[in-house]
Every structure is written in C-alpha cells, then in structure tokens.
Recover the amino acids of this structure.
C-alpha cells in the first residue's frame, strides 16, 4: 500500500506526467497519476481541475523530489550543451555563407509574430472548438460563447485570423442551429409524454 498520498508535481499534459512517473518508478518509488483521464478527456478544463497530479507516498516525498530535481538538472545541462553546439554550428555556417546571411536580414519569414491579443486568442480557441464540435456537440456551445466574446471585443484582428474567424462562424452557425432544433424536439417529445 502507498500510504497517505501527497502531490509532488502537477502537469498539463499526460506525456510529461508519464515521463516523470516512469522516472520515479525506475528509481523504485511507487506513484500514481491523479486526474489523468479527466484532463485527457476534458483538456479545456485542465486548469480548473489543477492538471494531472503526480502523487507519491508521504514518506517517499523527499526522495521523489530529489529524483525529479536530478532529472530536471540533467535536462538543463543537455539543453545547454545542445545550445552551445548549435551556436557554434551557426557561427561556422555564417562564416561559410556570408553572402546568404546578408540577403536574409530583411526576410519577413524570420521575424517573430507579435503576441496575440485576447480577441485573437479567442478566435483561435473558437476555430479549434468549432472543429472539435463536429465530434462533441457540447463543445459547439463553447465555440459559440467564444465567438460572442470575439464579437463584443474591440481589439483588432489580423487578416490570417479573420479567415479562421469566418470559417469558425460558417461552421458554427449550422451546428448550433441543428443542436437547438434537436434540443427543442426532445423537449417537445418529453412535454407531450408528460401531458399525454
């Protein structure tokens, strides 16, 4: 038996949680993942549920934290080595391709896009929710709520996101109308049963 469980770490995706769990199990520490299925199924509620919780027995907490700290340090050291080797490769490449480097200075593809404002983030969410809504009809109502919040906001929207907004609206309206008709028919059927 694991004894009293305490949360060691929380994760927003199942892959990271399983990697950490595997590391602990390799070190001989028994652990469990709480809320993994809920976060995987209802990803849009993962923040509300607090993510996937990696839990260990209270007596193994310090040892488990040490294992995860060592793993994180090893990852950081590996990233630093990769960054150094990548930087030296870039410097060598830049020395070999000096004329190419000059021609790419003004290349718009290399520029980072500015951060999305709240309205544009809602456009992205509405677009994704509309596409998922084809499989899960209740998500379609979430997409409708997002589209209404986009409509009420005053922030500007970039042209590429305007195209996604048009698609989200075009796909959302028929599905919401269909869902509304289905709900009304079901309500009418139940009302007729209750009366008759």
């Amino acid at each position: 038996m694991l004894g009293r469980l305490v949360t060691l770490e929380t994760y927003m995706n199942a892959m990271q949680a399983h990697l950490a769990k595997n590391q602990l199990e390799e070190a001989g520490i028994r652990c469990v993942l709480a809320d993994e299925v809920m976060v995987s199924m209802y990803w849009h509620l993962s923040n509300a549920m607090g993510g996937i919780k990696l839990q260990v027995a209270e007596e193994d907490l310090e040892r488990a934290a040490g294992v995860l700290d060592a793993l994180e340090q090893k990852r950081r050291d590996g990233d630093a080595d990769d960054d150094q080797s990548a930087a030296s490769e870039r410097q060598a490449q830049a020395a070999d391709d000096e004329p190419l480097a000059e021609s790419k200075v003004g290349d718009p593809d290399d520029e980072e896009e500015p951060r999305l404002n709240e309205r544009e983030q809602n456009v992205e969410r509405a677009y994704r929710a509309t596409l998922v809504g084809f499989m899960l009809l209740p998500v379609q109502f979430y997409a409708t709520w997002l589209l209404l919040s986009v409509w009420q906001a005053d922030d500007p929207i970039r042209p590429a996101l305007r195209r996604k907004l048009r698609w989200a609206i075009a796909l959302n309206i028929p599905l919401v109308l269909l869902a509304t008709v289905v709900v009304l028919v079901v309500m009418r059927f139940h009302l007729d049963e209750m009366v008759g």
Remarks:
- The chain has two domains: 1-111, 118-195.
- Confidence is low (pLDDT under 50) at residues 99-104.
- Residues 1-111 form one domain.
- The first strand starts at residue 5 and ends at 11.
